[in-house]
Amino acid sequence: MAIHVEGLLAIVIFYVIILFVGIWAAWKNKNSGVGEGKDQSESIMVGGRDIGLFVGAFTMTATWVGGGYINGTAEYVYLPGYGLAWAQAPFGYALSLVVGGLFFAKPMRSRGYVTMLDPFQQIYGKRMGGLLFIPALMGEIFWSAAILSALGATLSVIVDININMSVMISALIAIFYTLVGGLYSVVYTDVVQLFCIFVGLWISVPFALANPAVSDIGITAVKKVFQTPWLGTIHPSDGWMWADNFFLLVLGGIPWQVYFQRVLSASSAAYAQLLSFLAAFGCLVMAAPSVLIGAIGASTDWNQTSYGPVPPIERDESDMILPIVLQHLCPPFISFFGLGAVSAAVMSSTDSSILSASSMFARNIYQLAFRQSASDREIVWVMRITIFVFGAMATALALLTGTVYGLWYLSSDLVYVIIFPQLISVLFIKGTNTYGSVAGYVFGLLLRIGGGEPYLKIPPFIYYPGWYEEEKMHHLKKDVEHIVVQRFPFKTVAMLASFLSNIIFSCVARYLFESGVLSHKYDFLDAVVSKHSKEIMDKTTLVGNENIILSEMAPVKTKIGSTLEGTFMNTDALCDEGETSPDLNNEHK
Protein backbone atom coordinates (compact mmCIF):
# COMPACT_ATOMS: atom_id res chain seq x y z
CA MET A 1 0.00 0.00 0.00
CA ALA A 2 1.16 3.53 -0.74
CA ILE A 3 2.32 5.64 2.16
CA HIS A 4 0.33 8.84 2.68
CA VAL A 5 3.11 11.44 2.74
CA GLU A 6 0.97 14.15 4.36
CA GLY A 7 -0.13 11.84 7.16
CA LEU A 8 3.40 10.63 7.77
CA LEU A 9 4.63 14.23 7.87
CA ALA A 10 1.93 15.14 10.41
CA ILE A 11 2.99 12.24 12.65
CA VAL A 12 6.68 13.17 12.38
CA ILE A 13 5.96 16.80 13.31
CA PHE A 14 3.84 15.75 16.26
CA TYR A 15 6.43 13.29 17.56
CA VAL A 16 9.20 15.88 17.25
CA ILE A 17 7.12 18.34 19.31
CA ILE A 18 6.47 15.74 22.02
CA LEU A 19 10.12 14.73 22.14
CA PHE A 20 11.18 18.38 22.38
CA VAL A 21 8.74 19.07 25.25
CA GLY A 22 9.90 15.95 27.11
CA ILE A 23 13.58 16.91 26.83
CA TRP A 24 12.82 20.56 27.71
CA ALA A 25 10.90 19.46 30.82
CA ALA A 26 13.83 17.28 31.90
CA TRP A 27 16.30 20.15 31.42
CA LYS A 28 14.06 22.73 33.10
CA ASN A 29 13.55 20.60 36.19
CA LYS A 30 16.87 18.78 36.34
CA ASN A 31 17.57 20.08 39.85
CA SER A 32 13.98 20.28 41.10
CA GLY A 33 13.25 18.10 44.11
CA VAL A 34 16.96 17.37 44.63
CA GLY A 35 18.76 18.79 47.62
CA GLU A 36 17.66 19.50 51.16
CA GLY A 37 17.97 15.79 51.92
CA LYS A 38 15.91 14.70 48.92
CA ASP A 39 17.06 12.03 46.48
CA GLN A 40 17.15 12.09 42.71
CA SER A 41 15.33 8.75 42.57
CA GLU A 42 12.42 10.20 44.53
CA SER A 43 12.42 13.22 42.23
CA ILE A 44 12.09 10.90 39.22
CA MET A 45 9.24 8.98 40.88
CA VAL A 46 7.16 11.81 42.37
CA GLY A 47 8.67 14.93 40.81
CA GLY A 48 9.89 16.55 44.01
CA ARG A 49 6.26 16.76 45.19
CA ASP A 50 5.87 20.23 43.70
CA ILE A 51 3.49 19.62 40.77
CA GLY A 52 1.23 22.67 40.46
CA LEU A 53 -2.51 22.92 39.90
CA PHE A 54 -2.56 23.56 36.14
CA VAL A 55 -0.04 20.90 35.12
CA GLY A 56 -1.35 18.56 37.82
CA ALA A 57 -4.93 18.74 36.54
CA PHE A 58 -3.79 17.82 33.02
CA THR A 59 -1.56 14.95 34.10
CA MET A 60 -4.17 13.58 36.52
CA THR A 61 -6.72 13.59 33.68
CA ALA A 62 -4.19 11.70 31.56
CA THR A 63 -4.29 8.90 34.16
CA TRP A 64 -7.12 7.30 32.18
CA VAL A 65 -7.64 9.47 29.08
CA GLY A 66 -5.50 7.52 26.66
CA GLY A 67 -5.71 5.45 23.50
CA GLY A 68 -7.88 2.76 25.06
CA TYR A 69 -10.18 5.37 26.57
CA ILE A 70 -11.02 7.34 23.42
CA ASN A 71 -11.02 4.31 21.08
CA GLY A 72 -12.94 2.09 23.48
CA THR A 73 -15.62 4.70 24.17
CA ALA A 74 -16.23 5.23 20.44
CA GLU A 75 -16.30 1.47 19.87
CA TYR A 76 -18.97 0.72 22.48
CA VAL A 77 -21.19 3.59 21.37
CA TYR A 78 -20.97 2.22 17.81
CA LEU A 79 -21.47 -1.48 18.62
CA PRO A 80 -25.02 -2.69 17.80
CA GLY A 81 -26.69 -4.04 20.90
CA TYR A 82 -24.45 -2.06 23.26
CA GLY A 83 -24.41 1.68 22.58
CA LEU A 84 -23.89 4.52 25.01
CA ALA A 85 -25.57 2.56 27.82
CA TRP A 86 -22.60 0.15 27.81
CA ALA A 87 -19.88 2.78 27.25
CA GLN A 88 -19.10 2.85 30.96
CA ALA A 89 -15.53 4.14 30.89
CA PRO A 90 -16.24 7.93 30.94
CA PHE A 91 -18.58 7.86 33.93
CA GLY A 92 -16.84 4.93 35.60
CA TYR A 93 -13.36 6.44 35.58
CA ALA A 94 -14.70 9.89 36.46
CA LEU A 95 -16.40 8.44 39.55
CA SER A 96 -13.23 6.47 40.27
CA LEU A 97 -11.27 9.72 40.48
CA VAL A 98 -13.93 11.26 42.73
CA VAL A 99 -13.88 8.26 45.10
CA GLY A 100 -10.09 8.22 45.03
CA GLY A 101 -9.99 11.91 45.88
CA LEU A 102 -12.52 11.61 48.70
CA PHE A 103 -11.10 8.58 50.49
CA PHE A 104 -7.62 7.59 49.26
CA ALA A 105 -5.67 10.64 48.07
CA LYS A 106 -5.50 12.31 51.50
CA PRO A 107 -4.18 9.36 53.59
CA MET A 108 -1.70 8.30 50.90
CA ARG A 109 -0.27 11.79 50.31
CA SER A 110 -0.32 12.94 53.95
CA ARG A 111 1.72 9.92 55.04
CA GLY A 112 4.37 10.76 52.47
CA TYR A 113 4.49 7.46 50.60
CA VAL A 114 6.48 7.27 47.36
CA THR A 115 4.65 4.40 45.61
CA MET A 116 1.32 2.63 45.98
CA LEU A 117 3.04 -0.47 47.40
CA ASP A 118 4.64 1.35 50.35
CA PRO A 119 1.76 0.84 52.81
CA PHE A 120 1.54 -2.86 51.91
CA GLN A 121 5.19 -3.42 52.69
CA GLN A 122 4.92 -1.33 55.83
CA ILE A 123 2.12 -3.47 57.27
CA TYR A 124 2.37 -6.84 55.51
CA GLY A 125 6.10 -7.09 54.84
CA LYS A 126 8.36 -7.31 51.84
CA ARG A 127 7.25 -10.78 50.70
CA MET A 128 3.61 -9.74 50.51
CA GLY A 129 4.66 -6.51 48.81
CA GLY A 130 6.39 -8.65 46.18
CA LEU A 131 3.25 -10.74 45.62
CA LEU A 132 1.10 -7.64 45.22
CA PHE A 133 3.65 -6.22 42.79
CA ILE A 134 2.80 -9.02 40.32
CA PRO A 135 -0.79 -7.99 39.42
CA ALA A 136 0.21 -4.30 39.60
CA LEU A 137 3.06 -4.87 37.13
CA MET A 138 0.89 -7.02 34.85
CA GLY A 139 -1.72 -4.27 34.72
CA GLU A 140 0.79 -1.57 33.75
CA ILE A 141 2.68 -3.65 31.15
CA PHE A 142 -0.39 -5.15 29.48
CA TRP A 143 -2.15 -1.77 29.45
CA SER A 144 0.85 -0.24 27.65
CA ALA A 145 0.99 -3.16 25.21
CA ALA A 146 -2.73 -2.94 24.46
CA ILE A 147 -2.67 0.74 23.58
CA LEU A 148 0.54 0.40 21.55
CA SER A 149 -1.17 -2.35 19.59
CA ALA A 150 -4.18 -0.08 19.05
CA LEU A 151 -1.87 2.68 17.83
CA GLY A 152 -0.26 0.41 15.25
CA ALA A 153 -3.66 -0.60 13.91
CA THR A 154 -4.84 3.01 13.83
CA LEU A 155 -1.84 4.32 11.92
CA SER A 156 -2.08 1.47 9.42
CA VAL A 157 -5.70 2.42 8.73
CA ILE A 158 -5.09 6.10 8.03
CA VAL A 159 -1.59 6.42 6.61
CA ASP A 160 -0.86 2.86 5.45
CA ILE A 161 2.49 2.66 7.23
CA ASN A 162 3.94 -0.54 8.64
CA ILE A 163 2.34 -1.46 11.97
CA ASN A 164 5.55 -2.77 13.54
CA MET A 165 7.50 0.34 12.59
CA SER A 166 4.87 2.72 13.98
CA VAL A 167 4.64 0.83 17.29
CA MET A 168 8.41 0.70 17.78
CA ILE A 169 8.96 4.39 16.96
CA SER A 170 6.15 5.47 19.29
CA ALA A 171 7.44 3.29 22.11
CA LEU A 172 11.04 4.45 21.66
CA ILE A 173 10.07 8.14 21.84
CA ALA A 174 8.00 7.59 25.00
CA ILE A 175 10.77 5.51 26.60
CA PHE A 176 13.45 8.06 25.69
CA TYR A 177 11.88 11.15 27.24
CA THR A 178 10.76 9.15 30.28
CA LEU A 179 14.34 7.96 30.73
CA VAL A 180 15.63 11.51 30.47
CA GLY A 181 13.17 13.38 32.65
CA GLY A 182 11.13 10.92 34.71
CA LEU A 183 7.83 12.24 36.05
CA TYR A 184 8.57 15.84 34.99
CA SER A 185 8.79 14.81 31.33
CA VAL A 186 5.65 12.70 31.69
CA VAL A 187 3.51 15.47 33.20
CA TYR A 188 4.62 18.24 30.81
CA THR A 189 4.10 16.06 27.74
CA ASP A 190 0.67 15.17 29.18
CA VAL A 191 -0.31 18.83 28.86
CA VAL A 192 0.61 18.90 25.16
CA GLN A 193 -0.91 15.49 24.47
CA LEU A 194 -4.27 16.23 26.09
CA PHE A 195 -4.45 19.54 24.22
CA CYS A 196 -3.82 17.66 20.96
CA ILE A 197 -6.48 15.05 21.80
CA PHE A 198 -9.07 17.71 22.59
CA VAL A 199 -8.37 19.91 19.57
CA GLY A 200 -7.76 17.06 17.10
CA LEU A 201 -10.99 15.20 17.86
CA TRP A 202 -13.20 18.27 18.16
CA ILE A 203 -11.96 19.59 14.81
CA SER A 204 -12.91 16.27 13.20
CA VAL A 205 -16.44 15.99 14.63
CA PRO A 206 -18.15 18.81 12.62
CA PHE A 207 -16.70 17.56 9.33
CA ALA A 208 -17.82 13.99 10.04
CA LEU A 209 -21.32 15.16 11.01
CA ALA A 210 -21.58 17.19 7.76
CA ASN A 211 -20.76 14.20 5.56
CA PRO A 212 -23.75 13.33 3.28
CA ALA A 213 -23.52 9.65 4.24
CA VAL A 214 -24.25 10.43 7.91
CA SER A 215 -27.85 10.58 9.12
CA ASP A 216 -29.10 12.80 11.93
CA ILE A 217 -27.56 11.31 15.09
CA GLY A 218 -30.54 12.62 17.07
CA ILE A 219 -32.80 10.30 15.08
CA THR A 220 -30.47 7.28 15.07
CA ALA A 221 -30.12 7.61 18.86
CA VAL A 222 -33.67 6.33 19.36
CA LYS A 223 -34.69 4.88 16.01
CA LYS A 224 -33.21 2.07 13.94
CA VAL A 225 -31.87 3.38 10.64
CA PHE A 226 -28.74 1.46 9.62
CA GLN A 227 -28.41 -0.46 12.87
CA THR A 228 -29.93 -0.50 16.37
CA PRO A 229 -30.11 2.91 18.16
CA TRP A 230 -26.75 4.04 19.47
CA LEU A 231 -28.11 5.06 22.88
CA GLY A 232 -28.33 1.35 23.61
CA THR A 233 -30.33 -0.51 26.22
CA ILE A 234 -29.63 -2.56 29.32
CA HIS A 235 -31.81 -5.64 29.47
CA PRO A 236 -32.94 -6.63 32.98
CA SER A 237 -31.19 -10.00 32.63
CA ASP A 238 -27.87 -8.17 32.02
CA GLY A 239 -28.28 -5.75 34.93
CA TRP A 240 -25.95 -7.57 37.33
CA MET A 241 -23.27 -7.95 34.65
CA TRP A 242 -23.52 -4.23 33.85
CA ALA A 243 -23.19 -3.36 37.56
CA ASP A 244 -20.22 -5.73 37.93
CA ASN A 245 -18.37 -4.02 35.08
CA PHE A 246 -19.27 -0.57 36.40
CA PHE A 247 -17.92 -1.30 39.90
CA LEU A 248 -14.81 -2.72 38.24
CA LEU A 249 -14.19 0.67 36.63
CA VAL A 250 -15.14 2.81 39.65
CA LEU A 251 -13.34 0.87 42.39
CA GLY A 252 -10.83 -1.02 40.27
CA GLY A 253 -9.64 2.27 38.77
CA ILE A 254 -8.24 3.39 42.13
CA PRO A 255 -5.40 0.96 43.05
CA TRP A 256 -3.11 1.80 40.12
CA GLN A 257 0.34 3.30 40.46
CA VAL A 258 -0.38 5.62 37.51
CA TYR A 259 -3.04 7.28 39.69
CA PHE A 260 -1.09 7.38 42.95
CA GLN A 261 1.98 8.55 41.04
CA ARG A 262 0.08 11.79 40.43
CA VAL A 263 -1.43 11.87 43.93
CA LEU A 264 1.96 11.51 45.60
CA SER A 265 3.54 14.16 43.35
CA ALA A 266 1.04 16.81 44.48
CA SER A 267 2.39 19.57 46.72
CA SER A 268 -0.09 18.70 49.52
CA ALA A 269 -2.85 16.28 50.42
CA ALA A 270 -5.50 18.94 49.74
CA TYR A 271 -4.00 19.54 46.27
CA ALA A 272 -4.05 15.79 45.59
CA GLN A 273 -7.78 15.72 46.35
CA LEU A 274 -8.49 18.78 44.24
CA LEU A 275 -6.54 17.37 41.29
CA SER A 276 -8.61 14.17 41.48
CA PHE A 277 -11.86 16.14 41.30
CA LEU A 278 -10.64 18.29 38.41
CA ALA A 279 -9.49 15.19 36.54
CA ALA A 280 -12.93 13.59 36.97
CA PHE A 281 -14.45 16.56 35.14
CA GLY A 282 -11.67 16.36 32.54
CA CYS A 283 -12.45 12.69 31.85
CA LEU A 284 -16.06 13.51 31.01
CA VAL A 285 -15.09 16.44 28.78
CA MET A 286 -12.49 14.40 26.89
CA ALA A 287 -14.98 11.57 26.29
CA ALA A 288 -17.54 13.77 24.53
CA PRO A 289 -15.95 13.74 21.02
CA SER A 290 -15.41 9.97 21.23
CA VAL A 291 -19.10 9.46 22.05
CA LEU A 292 -20.07 11.63 19.07
CA ILE A 293 -17.70 9.78 16.74
CA GLY A 294 -19.17 6.44 17.85
CA ALA A 295 -22.66 7.81 17.23
CA ILE A 296 -21.57 9.04 13.79
CA GLY A 297 -20.26 5.56 12.95
CA ALA A 298 -23.63 4.06 13.92
CA SER A 299 -25.45 6.64 11.77
CA THR A 300 -23.45 6.17 8.57
CA ASP A 301 -24.49 4.52 5.32
CA TRP A 302 -21.08 3.02 4.58
CA ASN A 303 -22.12 2.19 1.01
CA GLN A 304 -21.84 5.92 0.24
CA THR A 305 -18.27 6.17 1.55
CA SER A 306 -14.85 5.08 0.34
CA TYR A 307 -14.92 2.41 3.06
CA GLY A 308 -17.29 0.25 1.03
CA PRO A 309 -20.73 -1.37 1.45
CA VAL A 310 -19.71 -3.76 4.26
CA PRO A 311 -19.90 -1.94 7.62
CA PRO A 312 -17.03 -2.17 10.14
CA ILE A 313 -18.94 -4.52 12.45
CA GLU A 314 -19.10 -7.13 9.69
CA ARG A 315 -15.37 -6.79 9.00
CA ASP A 316 -14.51 -7.28 12.70
CA GLU A 317 -13.16 -3.72 12.72
CA SER A 318 -15.54 -2.16 15.24
CA ASP A 319 -12.58 -1.53 17.57
CA MET A 320 -11.18 0.85 14.95
CA ILE A 321 -14.34 2.84 14.36
CA LEU A 322 -12.71 6.10 15.47
CA PRO A 323 -9.85 6.07 12.91
CA ILE A 324 -12.24 4.70 10.27
CA VAL A 325 -14.59 7.67 10.76
CA LEU A 326 -11.62 10.06 10.63
CA GLN A 327 -10.35 8.60 7.39
CA HIS A 328 -13.55 8.01 5.42
CA LEU A 329 -15.87 10.77 6.66
CA CYS A 330 -13.42 13.69 7.06
CA PRO A 331 -11.22 15.55 4.55
CA PRO A 332 -7.63 14.24 4.53
CA PHE A 333 -6.09 17.28 6.22
CA ILE A 334 -8.67 17.00 9.03
CA SER A 335 -8.20 13.27 9.53
CA PHE A 336 -4.50 13.85 10.11
CA PHE A 337 -5.33 16.20 13.01
CA GLY A 338 -7.38 13.37 14.45
CA LEU A 339 -4.53 10.96 13.84
CA GLY A 340 -2.27 13.20 15.90
CA ALA A 341 -4.88 13.10 18.66
CA VAL A 342 -4.91 9.29 18.69
CA SER A 343 -1.11 9.14 18.72
CA ALA A 344 -1.08 11.65 21.57
CA ALA A 345 -3.52 9.58 23.58
CA VAL A 346 -1.41 6.45 23.21
CA MET A 347 1.86 8.09 24.19
CA SER A 348 0.14 9.84 27.09
CA SER A 349 -0.74 6.45 28.57
CA THR A 350 2.41 4.54 27.66
CA ASP A 351 4.96 6.82 29.28
CA SER A 352 3.21 7.00 32.67
CA SER A 353 2.57 3.23 32.81
CA ILE A 354 6.21 2.42 32.10
CA LEU A 355 7.39 4.93 34.73
CA SER A 356 4.91 3.52 37.26
CA ALA A 357 6.11 -0.06 36.77
CA SER A 358 9.78 0.91 37.03
CA SER A 359 9.14 3.03 40.16
CA MET A 360 7.49 0.13 41.98
CA PHE A 361 10.23 -2.30 40.98
CA ALA A 362 13.15 -0.02 41.84
CA ARG A 363 11.77 1.04 45.22
CA ASN A 364 9.60 -1.78 46.54
CA ILE A 365 11.35 -4.80 45.05
CA TYR A 366 14.99 -3.85 44.51
CA GLN A 367 15.54 -1.35 47.33
CA LEU A 368 13.18 -2.35 50.14
CA ALA A 369 13.18 -6.10 49.54
CA PHE A 370 16.75 -6.85 48.44
CA ARG A 371 19.10 -3.87 48.74
CA GLN A 372 18.11 -1.66 51.67
CA SER A 373 21.62 -0.18 51.61
CA ALA A 374 21.48 0.74 47.92
CA SER A 375 22.68 4.25 47.12
CA ASP A 376 20.47 6.80 45.44
CA ARG A 377 22.60 6.64 42.29
CA GLU A 378 22.12 2.86 42.18
CA ILE A 379 18.34 3.22 42.48
CA VAL A 380 18.32 5.78 39.65
CA TRP A 381 20.18 3.39 37.36
CA VAL A 382 17.85 0.53 38.27
CA MET A 383 14.93 2.77 37.33
CA ARG A 384 16.50 3.70 34.00
CA ILE A 385 17.22 0.07 33.14
CA THR A 386 13.71 -1.09 34.08
CA ILE A 387 12.09 1.77 32.14
CA PHE A 388 13.81 0.41 29.06
CA VAL A 389 13.12 -3.25 29.93
CA PHE A 390 9.42 -2.75 30.72
CA GLY A 391 9.01 -0.54 27.66
CA ALA A 392 10.59 -3.26 25.51
CA MET A 393 8.31 -5.89 27.09
CA ALA A 394 5.20 -3.83 26.33
CA THR A 395 6.38 -3.26 22.75
CA ALA A 396 7.15 -6.95 22.21
CA LEU A 397 3.72 -7.96 23.54
CA ALA A 398 2.05 -5.42 21.25
CA LEU A 399 3.87 -6.84 18.23
CA LEU A 400 3.98 -10.56 18.95
CA THR A 401 0.72 -11.55 20.64
CA GLY A 402 -2.81 -11.33 19.36
CA THR A 403 -4.35 -11.61 22.84
CA VAL A 404 -2.90 -8.46 24.40
CA TYR A 405 -6.34 -7.00 25.15
CA GLY A 406 -7.36 -10.23 26.85
CA LEU A 407 -4.23 -10.11 29.00
CA TRP A 408 -5.02 -6.53 30.01
CA TYR A 409 -8.66 -7.30 30.82
CA LEU A 410 -7.62 -10.18 33.07
CA SER A 411 -4.85 -8.21 34.80
CA SER A 412 -7.14 -5.22 35.40
CA ASP A 413 -9.65 -7.62 36.96
CA LEU A 414 -6.91 -8.93 39.26
CA VAL A 415 -6.05 -5.36 40.31
CA TYR A 416 -9.71 -4.88 41.29
CA VAL A 417 -10.16 -8.28 42.94
CA ILE A 418 -6.82 -8.48 44.78
CA ILE A 419 -5.20 -5.06 45.26
CA PHE A 420 -8.29 -2.92 45.97
CA PRO A 421 -9.50 -4.90 49.02
CA GLN A 422 -5.93 -5.05 50.30
CA LEU A 423 -5.61 -1.28 49.93
CA ILE A 424 -8.78 -0.70 51.97
CA SER A 425 -7.53 -3.10 54.64
CA VAL A 426 -4.08 -1.58 54.94
CA LEU A 427 -5.33 2.01 55.10
CA PHE A 428 -8.56 1.77 57.07
CA ILE A 429 -8.97 -1.60 58.83
CA LYS A 430 -7.21 -2.06 62.14
CA GLY A 431 -5.47 -5.35 62.89
CA THR A 432 -5.09 -7.03 59.49
CA ASN A 433 -1.84 -8.94 59.03
CA THR A 434 0.14 -10.95 56.50
CA TYR A 435 -1.82 -14.18 57.04
CA GLY A 436 -5.07 -12.44 56.21
CA SER A 437 -3.44 -10.72 53.24
CA VAL A 438 -2.26 -14.05 51.79
CA ALA A 439 -5.71 -15.61 52.31
CA GLY A 440 -7.42 -12.67 50.61
CA TYR A 441 -4.98 -12.87 47.71
CA VAL A 442 -5.63 -16.60 47.17
CA PHE A 443 -9.43 -16.41 47.52
CA GLY A 444 -9.73 -13.44 45.17
CA LEU A 445 -7.45 -15.05 42.57
CA LEU A 446 -9.28 -18.39 42.57
CA LEU A 447 -12.78 -16.87 42.38
CA ARG A 448 -11.76 -14.57 39.50
CA ILE A 449 -9.82 -17.14 37.47
CA GLY A 450 -12.61 -19.63 38.14
CA GLY A 451 -15.01 -17.45 36.16
CA GLY A 452 -12.90 -17.86 33.01
CA GLU A 453 -11.74 -15.27 30.48
CA PRO A 454 -13.19 -15.45 26.95
CA TYR A 455 -10.56 -13.10 25.47
CA LEU A 456 -7.81 -15.54 26.48
CA LYS A 457 -9.98 -18.61 25.78
CA ILE A 458 -9.66 -19.65 29.45
CA PRO A 459 -12.69 -21.84 30.23
CA PRO A 460 -14.41 -21.39 33.59
CA PHE A 461 -14.22 -24.05 36.29
CA ILE A 462 -16.75 -22.16 38.43
CA TYR A 463 -20.13 -21.69 36.73
CA TYR A 464 -21.85 -18.89 38.58
CA PRO A 465 -25.66 -18.55 38.68
CA GLY A 466 -27.14 -17.19 35.46
CA TRP A 467 -24.35 -18.33 33.11
CA TYR A 468 -25.13 -19.16 29.50
CA GLU A 469 -23.28 -20.13 26.34
CA GLU A 470 -23.12 -17.63 23.49
CA GLU A 471 -22.07 -18.00 19.87
CA LYS A 472 -19.60 -15.38 18.67
CA MET A 473 -19.31 -15.04 14.89
CA HIS A 474 -15.94 -14.09 13.35
CA HIS A 475 -16.96 -12.60 10.02
CA LEU A 476 -13.53 -12.65 8.38
CA LYS A 477 -12.61 -16.19 9.42
CA LYS A 478 -16.15 -17.42 8.84
CA ASP A 479 -16.10 -19.45 12.03
CA VAL A 480 -18.19 -19.53 15.20
CA GLU A 481 -16.75 -19.44 18.71
CA HIS A 482 -18.71 -20.72 21.69
CA ILE A 483 -18.05 -18.70 24.84
CA VAL A 484 -19.47 -18.87 28.36
CA VAL A 485 -21.01 -15.60 29.56
CA GLN A 486 -21.21 -15.07 33.32
CA ARG A 487 -24.13 -12.78 34.14
CA PHE A 488 -23.51 -13.11 37.85
CA PRO A 489 -21.36 -10.23 39.28
CA PHE A 490 -18.58 -12.66 40.12
CA LYS A 491 -15.79 -10.08 39.92
CA THR A 492 -17.31 -7.93 42.65
CA VAL A 493 -18.15 -11.04 44.69
CA ALA A 494 -14.51 -12.16 44.35
CA MET A 495 -13.38 -8.72 45.53
CA LEU A 496 -15.68 -8.83 48.57
CA ALA A 497 -14.58 -12.39 49.35
CA SER A 498 -10.95 -11.29 49.20
CA PHE A 499 -11.70 -8.38 51.55
CA LEU A 500 -13.60 -10.48 54.11
CA SER A 501 -11.00 -13.27 53.94
CA ASN A 502 -8.28 -10.77 54.83
CA ILE A 503 -10.17 -9.60 57.92
CA ILE A 504 -11.32 -13.06 59.08
CA PHE A 505 -8.00 -14.86 58.65
CA SER A 506 -6.13 -11.94 60.23
CA CYS A 507 -8.36 -12.15 63.33
CA VAL A 508 -8.08 -15.93 63.50
CA ALA A 509 -4.28 -15.85 63.18
CA ARG A 510 -4.00 -13.15 65.80
CA TYR A 511 -6.24 -15.07 68.24
CA LEU A 512 -4.38 -18.37 67.74
CA PHE A 513 -0.96 -16.89 68.43
CA GLU A 514 -1.87 -14.39 71.15
CA SER A 515 -4.00 -16.92 73.10
CA GLY A 516 -1.26 -19.53 72.98
CA VAL A 517 -3.27 -22.08 70.97
CA LEU A 518 -0.39 -22.07 68.49
CA SER A 519 3.19 -21.74 69.61
CA HIS A 520 4.98 -18.56 68.70
CA LYS A 521 7.54 -20.57 66.75
CA TYR A 522 4.87 -21.29 64.11
CA ASP A 523 4.50 -17.60 63.28
CA PHE A 524 6.72 -18.16 60.26
CA LEU A 525 5.63 -14.92 58.58
CA ASP A 526 6.50 -12.86 61.69
CA ALA A 527 3.13 -11.19 61.28
CA VAL A 528 1.69 -11.47 64.81
CA VAL A 529 4.33 -12.37 67.39
CA SER A 530 7.25 -10.57 65.81
CA LYS A 531 5.21 -7.52 64.83
CA HIS A 532 8.20 -5.21 64.95
CA SER A 533 10.72 -7.52 63.31
CA LYS A 534 12.71 -6.54 60.25
CA GLU A 535 10.25 -8.45 58.04
CA ILE A 536 7.33 -6.20 58.94
CA MET A 537 8.94 -2.91 58.08
CA ASP A 538 7.95 -0.26 60.58
CA LYS A 539 7.81 3.44 59.95
CA THR A 540 11.53 3.84 60.51
CA THR A 541 12.27 1.47 57.61
CA LEU A 542 9.97 3.19 55.16
CA VAL A 543 10.29 6.79 56.28
CA GLY A 544 13.80 6.91 57.65
CA ASN A 545 17.07 6.98 55.77
CA GLU A 546 15.62 9.57 53.37
CA ASN A 547 13.35 7.04 51.65
CA ILE A 548 10.29 9.05 52.61
CA ILE A 549 11.02 12.46 54.07
CA LEU A 550 8.80 13.38 56.99
CA SER A 551 9.14 17.05 56.05
CA GLU A 552 7.44 16.12 52.75
CA MET A 553 4.28 15.14 54.54
CA ALA A 554 1.39 17.57 54.18
CA PRO A 555 0.24 19.23 57.41
CA VAL A 556 -2.89 17.16 57.80
CA LYS A 557 -3.80 16.32 61.37
CA THR A 558 -5.43 12.93 61.78
CA LYS A 559 -7.62 12.54 64.84
CA ILE A 560 -7.39 9.08 66.34
CA GLY A 561 -9.34 8.15 69.42
CA SER A 562 -11.58 5.54 70.95
CA THR A 563 -14.40 6.52 68.61
CA LEU A 564 -15.68 4.53 65.65
CA GLU A 565 -13.04 6.28 63.51
CA GLY A 566 -10.30 5.04 65.81
CA THR A 567 -11.61 1.51 65.57
CA PHE A 568 -11.40 1.34 61.79
CA MET A 569 -8.38 3.57 61.14
CA ASN A 570 -5.06 1.76 61.10
CA THR A 571 -3.05 3.92 63.47
CA ASP A 572 0.09 1.85 62.84
CA ALA A 573 0.18 3.25 59.34
CA LEU A 574 -0.05 6.82 60.61
CA CYS A 575 2.60 7.03 63.24
CA ASP A 576 4.49 5.12 65.86
CA GLU A 577 2.88 4.89 69.26
CA GLY A 578 3.28 8.12 71.14
CA GLU A 579 4.83 9.94 68.20
CA THR A 580 3.59 12.30 65.54
CA SER A 581 5.15 13.91 62.54
CA PRO A 582 7.32 16.92 63.39
CA ASP A 583 5.45 18.90 60.77
CA LEU A 584 2.15 18.08 62.40
CA ASN A 585 3.41 19.36 65.73
CA ASN A 586 4.71 22.55 64.17
CA GLU A 587 1.47 23.07 62.30
CA HIS A 588 -0.63 23.05 65.47
CA LYS A 589 1.64 24.88 67.89
Automatic annotation (TrEMBL):
A Pfam family hit: SSF
Reaction equations catalysed: choline(out) + n Na(+)(out) = choline(in) + n Na(+)(in)
This protein's UniProt keywords: Glycoprotein, Ion transport, Membrane, Neurotransmitter biosynthesis, Sodium, Sodium transport, Symport, Transmembrane, Transmembrane helix, Transport
TM spans (from-to): 6-27, 48-70, 90-108, 129-151, 163-184, 191-209, 239-259, 271-300, 320-346, 381-408, 414-431
Keyword Cell wall biogenesis/degradation: no
InterPro entries per UniProt: Choline_transporter, Na/Glc_symporter_sf, Na/solute_symporter
Subcellular localization(s) per the UniProt record: Presynaptic cell membrane
Protein topology in the membrane: Multi-pass membrane protein
A biological process from GO: neuromuscular synaptic transmission
Gene Ontology CC terms, in alphabetical order: axon; dendrite; perikaryon; presynaptic membrane
GO molecular function, one term: choline:sodium symporter activity
PANTHER family reported in the protein's UniProt record: HIGH AFFINITY CHOLINE TRANSPORTER 1 (PTHR45897:SF2), HIGH-AFFINITY CHOLINE TRANSPORTER 1 (PTHR45897)
Oligomeric form and interacting partners: Homooligomerizes at cell surface. Interacts with SEC14L1; may regulate SLC5A7.
Protein role: High-affinity Na(+)-coupled choline transmembrane symporter. Functions as an electrogenic, voltage-dependent transporter with variable charge/choline stoichiometry. Choline uptake and choline-induced current is also Cl(-)-dependent where Cl(-) is likely a regulatory ion rather than cotransported ion. Plays a critical role in acetylcholine (ACh) synthesis by taking up the substrate choline from the synaptic cleft into the presynaptic nerve terminals after neurotransmitter release.
Family: Belongs to the sodium:solute symporter (SSF) (TC 2.A.21) family.
Annotated protein name in UniProt: High affinity choline transporter 1
Source organism of this protein record: Electrophorus voltai
